[in-house]
């Protein structure tokens, strides 16, 4: 049966800004009431006060923060009760009450969290459809699922990618894994900062927003263990790195920009792989006389030449229509 629900009401960027506000106010030994939270957040962000308060109340509903009654110990309101908020951290951090004191109790929202809290396509909260085959969730419009039978076991767009037929569909799983090893190695070398988990010590609230934490090292392990049946499945797992970065760090953070570049590079690698799996495999494994070995199906052989360069033998990998003749995309001199 199709499951549709609201996993999160609050926007991740608003609730993270409120989190930092409550933490900062608590460390100043002040009561984090709405007035102080607003002042703190508005110092950093040009948001409407009404939107901040709305997101604060949404975050309380989501279990990210807790309302409590605090008694002011100084100032003109000394001795008065006032509504305040306290943050709920993960296992590796303490919980702070409204007066900045640590609490021994460990609290985590959504203990049943088998699925993500945010749409895998747009990284926003709201009503989502839960995939029956993976932890991803999607808005109806993002999944283009305008009509869903209530009796079906809903499979998300990311899971369906693995079912697509392409030039690698008939290849044995071990050969697919070997080619993905070449890909992940190249990505690791270029994006070394994405090979480690985000530090919970530096980001203690990370697990409150990120349901499926991963990095290039984890994905490399999955590649070696042959967990991906296709390049499409591999790419969808890589997208988790970008998905998590947008949710936690925001659109324009340098970590997110790096994750976007990672996905673009991975798409280019996979495009080459699908164009001719044999060429991709041979050009990376480089057995003896690898460029002379025929692919299946074999390529047409031509002489290729660039301006001011001598001609060299090349394999035709594809044709592009061009006025006055065909434009050849060829692989030569070790490039396929």
TrEMBL record:
Swiss-Prot/TrEMBL keywords: Bromodomain, Chromatin regulator, Isopeptide bond, Metal-binding, Nucleus, Phosphoprotein, Repressor, Ubl conjugation, Zinc, Zinc-finger
Gene3D superfamilies: 2.30.30.140, Bromodomain-like, Zinc/RING finger domain, C3HC4 (zinc finger)
Record-level GO cellular component terms: nucleus
Record flagged with keyword Zinc-finger: yes
Coiled-coil ranges (or none): none
A UniProt-annotated Pfam family: Bromodomain
Subcellular location: Nucleus
Top-rank lineage group of the source organism: Eukaryota
GO annotation (BP), single: regulation of signal transduction
Record flagged with keyword Translocase: no
GO MF terms, alphabetically ordered: DNA binding; transcription corepressor activity; zinc ion binding
Domain Bromo: 183-256
Domain PHD-type: 116-162
InterPro entries linked to this entry: Bromodomain, Bromodomain-like_sf, SAMD1-like_WH, Zinc_finger_PHD-type_CS, ZMY11, Znf_FYVE_PHD, Znf_PHD, Znf_PHD-finger
Residue stretches making up the SAMD1-like winged helix (WH) domain: 6-82
Protein name: Zinc finger MYND domain-containing 11
